Amino acid sequence: MATMKAGPIGGSEAWLGADMAKSTEWIRPVPPPALAEMDAALDGLRRRGLNWPRFGRDDFPLPTFSRELAAVLEELEQGRGFVLLRGIPVGRYAPDELKNLYWGIGAHLGHARWQNSRGELIGEVRDENRLYGEVREPSMDPTLGRSSRSKARSSGPLRFHTDRCDIVTLLCVRRARAGGQSRIVSAVSVADAILARRPDLHALLWQDYWRSRQGEEAGGERESYAMPLFATHAGKFTTQYSRTFVEAAQKLPGVPRMTAAQDEALDLHAEVCEELAFTMELEPGDLQLLNNHVIYHGRTAYEDADATGTGSSFASGSRRRTAASCRRASIRSGARRRPARPGAASRSPLDRARSQVISGLSRPHHMEACS
Prior knowledge:
Blueprint: H1 17-21, E1 27-29, H2 32-48, H3 65-78, E2 82-86, H4 95-107, E3 110-113, E4 123-125, H5 128-132, H6 148-152, E5 158-161, E6 167-172, E7 178-179, E8 182-186, H7 187-197, H8 199-204, E9 208-212, E10 224-228, E11 230-233, E12 236-239, H9 243-249, H10 260-276, E13 278-280, E14 287-291, E15 295-299, E16 302-303, E17 313-315, E18 317-320, E19 356-361
Parallel strand pairs: 1-2
Antiparallel strand pairs: 2-14, 3-18, 4-17, 4-19, 5-15, 6-14, 6-19, 7-16, 8-13, 8-15, 9-10, 11-12
C-alpha cells in the first residue's frame, strides 16, 4: 500500500498555488436553472415534512444540476482535486432551509460520514471559546491536549491537514469580521518538492508515523495506530495527515518515539506546504470542495462577525459516490483510511447556521470515512 514512488508524481493534481491564485478556471458559477431546481427541491421537502439528515438524493431532485455535480466529482478525482461552486444565494434561506439545501447538494456528491465521536454530520465553524468560554466537547484528556475539533471550533489558525473522508466541503454563509481565510495546497506538489529537496526525508514520509485517535476510539480500536503520510493505491497517490494526531501520539505510553529525522521531515513538510499554497477568497454562497487524498487545507485565524452564536461555516464528511475513487482505498492501519468507521444517523443535529459549511463526502458505496 505505501510503496514509495521512485520519482516525481506530477500530473493534473500537481499544481502550484502561485498559478492558481492567478487563475479562475477552478471557479464554476452556479447557473440560474440550478438555483430554480434547488428551490423546487426545498419546496418538495417542505410539502413532505422532510429535514436533514432524514432524506437522500432521490428526495432532492436536481434534474440538470446533478450533471454539473457529476462533472465536479470527475474534476475532484481526475483533475486538480478541488473546485469552487459560486453563487448559491445563502442570504435568502432560513438556517434550517440552508442546512437542508447543503445536505441535498451533498447527497448528489456522496454519502455523509460522521466527523467525530459525537456523531456530527454538519459541523458549524464558529469561535465557541468566544460564545461559551470553552469549546463544547467531552472533557479534554490532559495528556493528549487539545483535540483537532477543539482547534477547529476556536478562532485560531489551523495547520495544513486532511480530514478523514474522501471529500470535504465548505459553504461560506457570511464573512468573518476579520481573517478566517481558507488555504489549500496540492499534496502531490508538496511530495514532489520534498523529493527534489531532501530525498532522505521524502523516504521517511512513506514510512509509518504513529497517530493518536484522541479519545475517539470505536469498540475494540487501539488508542493509537501507525500510518505513513504518503502512500499509493492502484497506482494513485494518497495522503492522510494531521500533525495534531502525531504530536498527541508521542505523549502516549508504548508509542515509539519519533527520531530527529522524522521530526525534521514533518517540519520540511509544513514549510513546503506554506511555500506552495494559495489563499481562497471565499464569498457568501461559495461552496468549496476538496479531495482529501491530494489536497491539504488550512485556515488563518479569525474573528467572528457577531456574538449571536450564528456561525460562518458548516462542516461534514462523506464518501464519494462513484467507484472510480476506490483506487485510493485505505492507507490507515488499525482503522482503515478510506474505509473507516461507518456513519449513522446524526445523534446531535446542530441548531445554528454558520457562514461556512464544511461537508465531507465519500463516493464509492464500498468505502467509508469520517473526518
